């Protein structure tokens, strides 16, 4: 692992790789976004640019798929109740503070912070989802491919039965889109506090529609069960030819959970819990699948990164542990192997 100094003056809330893994964006309470470029010659990360992006703490950032623009596109959300869309200007100097320009500001009709924003997979078009403390999931879509300054609100789904106080410090809200392009319907997960919900779109009855046209609505098809605390992270695995979906969550109760979601003929899901791992023995903050959906990584309050893989007995076991000194902890690995025997 290669540590590098970001230069942020306060807590870093999010860090994301771009599609090709050659650029990293970071978001912080210091109200700045920083972008770093990977230098293959020196195997180091070089500052691309740093700019004050919001008027309050920035909680999440998301890269758009590169097919939608010749320049890189970022979205960010903040405690200032806005989502902003940014575009890189390659002709500007590195570190000038002008290399990234704001394309649009989505003034969310929410009285509280926006906790998560995420672009949808590219096969769904250029759209992004966001959720704030009012518990409403919103989808915005770019109306014109050649004009990324124009975004329209197309969906609003109340997730919570009641809104949180505007000054609430709860930040357990997350969005995850289904990455598979071979499913019949559009699917996504929205996490709110200790609950996770899977939604799918279904065509509305054209005969009942006022305009008689084809419209779409989103319906909740199932919940993610068994969580005994705030869900901090959710990750939907790439399908890679599976007939079912794998979904992982990281929870405040100390467990990493892996669910098997099987679609039924009527569009619903059957949810089965495949694994519950509490090796972190403390709060789990982030889970993420690799590109093939075969290895899951998790990070917790123990300051360690754990890698999980399914063995030939269909059991999920910890295959490696990386500690905060950025070196593989052989003693920890031996301990995990001995536990799996």
From TrEMBL:
Name the membrane topology term: Peripheral membrane protein
> Where do the WD repeat units fall?
5-46, 51-87, 277-309
**Quick one: a GO cellular component term?**
nuclear pore outer ring
List UniProt keywords, sorted A-Z: mRNA transport, Nuclear pore complex, Nucleus, Protein transport, Repeat, Translocation, Transport, WD repeat
Q: Report any one BP term from Gene Ontology.
A: positive regulation of TORC1 signaling
MF terms (GO), sorted A to Z? structural molecule activity
Q: Where in the cell is it found?
A: Endomembrane system; Nucleus, Nuclear pore complex
**Which InterPro entries does this entry report, sorted A to Z?**
Sec13/Seh1_fam, WD40/YVTN_repeat-like_dom_sf, WD40_PAC1, WD40_repeat_dom_sf, WD40_rpt
Similarity comment text for this entry: Belongs to the WD repeat SEC13 family.
What is the protein name for this chain? Anaphase-promoting complex subunit 4 WD40 domain-containing protein
Organism of provenance:
Candida parapsilosis (strain CDC 317 / ATCC MYA-4646)
